[in-house]
Amino acid sequence: MAILGTIIFKPKYDIEITRGIIEKFTQEWLRWEDTGTYISWSNDRHYQAAERRLPEGYFRFDIEMDSGCLEDFTEICWCEETISAAHLTDDMFILLVEEGFFKDPEDYHFYEREFTEVLSALSANDSRLLSFWGDQCYVSQKEKDGSIKSRMNQLANLMLNTAF
To answer: Which of 54, 106, 139, 154 could form a disulfide with 58 if both were Cys (CB 3.0 to 4.6 A apart)?
Structure first.
């Protein structure tokens, strides 16, 4: 088992609903299951010690790969299929509609949309999303009004220049 990345975010909606949306998106639309990739939710197992707890309302999960080919792994959806009414209701993708995720209200699809875009849409306003990949961290700030700013940080430079 290898950890490919770690995500920390504060969901806007109930964690079980949010978790279901994330898992449906990654398994059915990104096809992570076909690449041996899955999500391991960490809050219950690893972050119980007081010094390791996340701020109130934040959750952490790791993206892990047991077997498969890293070349087949993707964070971008290449499926051009339209999202059905059943997906909108049964899989709760309707919450993405409410967040203004889809650019064309007549055509709901995930084509060329990134995993972090889905996570940002599901994040609470006035919170941050952190996505760690090696020595890089993608940081997304969702403002109080719902607007989103993001940037990539090099962790090695940050840590080497942080004073003690």
So the answer is: 54
